[in-house]
Amino acid sequence: VRRAEYRDAVAEWCDGRVVLGPDLGAAKPHGPFWLIVDSVGASALSAALGMLAPNGTCVTLGVSEGNTATFESRDFFSTGGTRLYGLTLFHELMSVERAGIGLRLLAELIEAEKLRPQIAVEASWDEIGTIARRLIDREFTGKAVLHIE
What is the mean pLDDT of residues 101-126? Predict the structure, then answer.
């Protein structure tokens, strides 16, 4: 995690194995990893590609640090079966399954208490502009639930 205030929330889900700081490379002693999800890009994506286990996958879905990543291509392909997957929500919804199928699965996992969403804000749909700005500005961690009245 990048910020200390998120450490405890993340530690709860991974038996306390949390690396704190902006350098993803600090997680390398805990690897190699079968799955890495990267939303930072640039140096984080570069580090992630060097920490994959054989047949491991790195899913990249953001570039908050930057658009360009460099990596050791020999290390990446010689690990064997490693994959880099670019995830874009709208493409996923159109090509994999209808959104309702995934939403139902999530609702069932929540109902079975196998998934606990981190809801940080609940507000009226009328406040969508303010809540969206707060989300973009990273003023809160977790999800925002907007109620339609």
Answer: 90
